[in-house]
Amino acid sequence: MKKNYNIFIISFLAFILIPKAAYGMHIMEGFLPPKWCILWAVLCIPFIIKGFISIKKKIDENPKGKMLIAMAGAYAFVLSALKIPSVTGSCSHPTGVGLGAVIFGPYVASVLGLIVLIFQALLLAHGGITTLGANTFSMGVVGPLVTYGLYKFLRKIKVSSPVSIFISTMLGDLATYVTTSIQLSIAFPDKTGGITASLVKFMSIFAVTQIPLAISEGILTVVVFNVLYKYNRDEVIEFSMNKMEENCNE
Amino acid sequence: MSKKNIFLILLVILLTFAPLFLLKNAEFAGADDRAESAITEINKDYKPWFSSIWEPPSGEVESLLFSLQSAIGAGIVCYYIGYIKGKSVKGSVKK
Question: Model-level pTM greater than 0.95?
Fold first, then answer.
């Protein structure tokens, strides 16, 4: 009897909440005070400009690269549309920008992240236009920078390519959510505990939820990279900034 | 190689669906919803100063748009993989 009652309550709550719930992880529209919106947006601008220049340069060098860039963008599209349940009992989604960061470097991935975020903010009410800067900073700048930096480092110390990709995209994904937590806790410090107390709160919401998803993203990126490497080795090597190191690949 | 990929994909599927079976009573709402309530908890007076220009009118429409997003993405990804696979097979036949 008690159990039926619980099920009733849960389905009732689900019924009222779900239609309004904007699932996911970006900072919601209007939920960041204006001065922070501006600050994060300004911080993103140099990365985005560098990204556009980098894309243009790569396409000028090899027009065929357009397809590979489109494919990396499409990969981010797929992954960031998948809201995946996690061990904390809530849902979030991967970022998918890690693949672009590994192949083309961090700045191209910033542009790809921005495109995905604009699509979601305008059509899905997911994330937002006012928070676009903050979200681009976490998903398009910090995530790809961490992924790319780690990937280069791991390859340098002769870790195999699949393992490097797994670790770097996983931690890049996680870094995105840690950044989101930091952004929110700076903007909303706890009255008694200050920024640290808020950080613990937001980290437990975003970062912990993200751990299994980050692992999934790492694995999926390895699979896609394996396929790309198998059938299109030359182009992947040409565009990846790790030309020199690729010869020690399996 | 492809056996390894299949194993990896199965691993992802397991990781994705395990929480649904491990946590039977969880709500699985979005993490950003929980962040919203955390914000109101920290600062009761905070009112969002801007709201979305357009919001999907219902959960169904929203899921339509989300599936559209992943369908477009998956279409391009698979088109490209098919393209390079076909190209590499053709190349090896010529040689």
Answer: no
